[in-house]
Amino acid sequence: MPDPASNSSPSSTPSTPAARPLSFIEQVIEADNLSGRWGVWTPADASPTAAPGPAGDAARARLGKPRVHTRFPPEPNGYLHIGHAKSICLNYGLASRYHGRFNLRFDDTNPAKEEQEYVDAIKRDVLWLGADFNTHTGASAGGIFWASDYFEQMYAWGEELIHKGLAYVCALSADEVSKRRGTPQIPATSPDRDRPKPDSLRLLREMRDGKHPNGSYTLRARIDLASPNFNLRDPVLYRILHEAHHNTGTKWCIYPMYDYAHGFEDSLEGITHSICTLEFENHRPLYDWFIDSVNHGRHAQDPDPSRRPIHHPQQIEFARGNLNYTVTSKRFLLRLVQDKHVLGWDDPRMPTIAGFRRRGYTAAAIREFWDQLGVTKTNGTVDFSRLENTIRGHLNRTTPRRMGVLRPLKVTIENYEDAKTEWMDLVNNPEDAAMGVRKVPFSRTLYIERDDFMEDPPKKFFRLAQGAEVRLRGAYWIRCERVIKDASGAITELRCSYDPTTRGGESPPPAADGTVRKVKATLHWVSAPHAMPAEVRLFDRLFNAEEPGKRTGEQLDDLNPSSLEIIPGAMLEPAFLDDLRSASQGGTGLQPVSGAASPPSGFTPITLAGATWPDAIGRYQLERLGYFCIDKDTDVAAGRLVLNRTVTLKDDWAKTKA
Ligand code: ATP
Ligand code: MG
Fold first, then answer.
1. CA separation (Å) from 610 to 577, 579, 638, 642?
2. What mean pLDDT is predicted for residues 307-321?
């Protein structure tokens, strides 16, 4: 399906540096570029300069420019959320703005919590956001990397630190370490701090060789037990974990701690600007210490390249992106999934990138949202409605209008010929004439929205009522003559008349006495015999509270119990069929399917012969109802169409909840 709202790369969005002042990170980069701090790209690291196509062109253009190399380093222990998107857009955006490179690096140092499903999901989400890390295709790509590929090197540095008297093996359990960590006034203690180097070396090798159980020993840095920065009080570098790893299998039973591994990963990949969130600010002295300690006693002229000083990236911290009514903690999101509070990681109510995608958000809108907010050094919370307004703006410009009725009420036009169908021209997008017009059938039997009729209307109700007249969008004016009810008194049908002089929804000519008839409402409608049945899913916010968990300390207490409403019997105009046909890659003509789905009586469900529904996102505006997209639960072969509401047309949330 053509998807005009989807991906162009972040570099090609109109948010160029000229549009706003430089961020504090851009100022750092520009100063580094001026001073030549990181050197320039050479044929050895600008690669693939020999490649054809955009990736090669970009590499050739990069040669000789100051080096800017960024990365996004997720731990594959869950799906990415909207906060991660901020980091991805920032890092990729900087690489592309400065002709640099961007790495995707899996920080896969904890085998207990990591899974292939998460690795696949992260790759998909990063690519969808437009941050192409693949060096064959991505103009700013640096490649994809695995922290676990560096285990051997990190271990060697661990031994080197022991040799230098800067690390030791400690027999304290995790509990004892935390009991002995001291206070700001009282230093931490460790009985093993002065263990002789040969002992530590032997024990570390035994740990690596699997001779000791989990928790029996750790390797610790020998820094400063009295440091006011607790991160420097002899942090643990390696722990024993008898656990298979998705990449290294059972080769290792000791694994590096996050802090130890992280700076080395950046160093090994030649990252220049190692951008992370504020909570790591007081870990920076530790990263610097690790690299300085490895470099201690090394010389750039050493004949053995592996003995020369290693690259020392600059860590830069920025405030994480937070949204109200939202929780962005992978651990909590995992709980929502595992305890089945949502349908899965990609539930359209989830704040995950996969959830937003399934809900119909565009990557361009997410990029624009974070780009406009910029990066700062102070934590704050952004209004969720701001994100919604950004997506509204995008969809308003890019989606075709369609008509659909969520809760159908049958209308019979008594003075309209029985077998007749007229095909009305309706504009696809008044914001964009290039999107053209489409044909919408009009016939004697229609559906309108049940809410658009009232038997005893209050004064300000301008929609349909007994004896009242309204315009049907792009069709005719109709007047309600009679209301038909069933035995229980429920309204089952409206009998109406239409005015043939109002074709296209135009005003009728003035009456003989000069009076001009007026209508105050324009309703959406669908021709019943042509309609396509659909299930429509409406979403409300997942949490009722601005700051979930603030009241009781338990975020689940603020879950909104009615965040999902399923409408099984909606009716859509048949233009959806054309879209399904073009989406179904080689699918041929329409065929009725017997026994599939269970639309309201009188309808033939429709399928596309031999077609499978691609994982693409058709996005639409349903007149008066909001923006919608086609959900992956759509099953063309079974004649089942499922729509998700991405967002309403207006920000009515604050009003209705007030
Ligand atoms: P968790 O949610 O499990 O505490 P995490 O979100 O930090 O962990 P990582 O996989 O370590 O998960 O995150 C990868 C990168 O994304 C890190 O560099 C982190 O700084 C960044 N990041 C995470 N959350 C946000 C956020 N809300 N805003 C901006 N960047 C973020
Ligand atoms: Mg983290």
1. 15, 16, 11, 19
2. 97
Domains and their CATH numbers in the chain: 24-151+258-320 (3.40.50.620), 170-256 (3.90.800.10), 363-401+535-657 (2.40.240.10), 404-523 (2.40.240.10)
590 phi and psi angles, rounded to 5 deg: -80, 140
Contact criterion met (CB below 8 Å) for 155 and 191: no
Closest ligand 1 atom number to CA of residue 320? 28
Give the H or E element holding residue 123. helix 116-128
Mean pLDDT of the chain, nearest integer: 89
**Average pLDDT over every residue of 617-635:** 88
Kindly indicate the confidence band of residue 604, based on its pLDDT and cuts at 50, 70 and 90: very low
The share of the chain scoring above pLDDT 90, in percent, equals: 78
Query: Which residue CA neighbors atom 29 of ligand 1 most closely?
Result: 320
Q: What is the mean pLDDT of residues 598-602?
A: 30
Question: Is residue 644 very low, low, confident or very high in pLDDT (cuts 50, 70, 90)?
Answer: very high
3-class SS of residue 388: helix
Ligand 1: which residue has its CA nearest to atom 26? 83
Of 71, 195, 208, 330, the catalytic one is 330
Name 572's bridge partners: 404, 532
How many angstroms separate the alpha carbon of residue 73 from the centre of ligand 1? 8
Find out whether the beta carbon of 331 lies less than 6 Å from any atom of ligand 1.
Answer: yes
- Of 123, 164, 320, 450, catalytic: 320
Does residue 276 sit in helix, strand or coil?
strand
Instruction: Tell me if 87 CB under 6 Å of ligand 1.
Output: yes
Which ranges constitute the DSSP H helices of 410-523? none
Q: What pLDDT, on the 0 to 100 scale, is given for residue 161?
A: 98
Q: What are the pLDDT digits (tens) for 500-514?
A: 999 999 999 999 999
> Candidates 71, 80, 82, 87: which one to mutate for ligand 1, based on the most atoms within 8 Å of Cβ?
87
Beta bridge partners of 317: 276
- Residue 190's identity, in one-letter code, is S
List the one residue out of 207, 209, 206, 194 whose CA is nearest residue 162: 194
Take residue 346 and report the two structure tokens written for it: 């990609």
Ligand 1 atom, smallest distance to 321 CA: 28
* pLDDT recorded at residue 18: 52
Told to judge if 320 belongs to the known catalytic residues of this protein, a careful annotator would answer yes
318-344 CB burial, b ≥16 within 10 A, e <16: bebbbbbbbbbebebbbebbeeeebee
Q: Which residue's alpha carbon is nearest to atom 9 within ligand 1?
A: 74
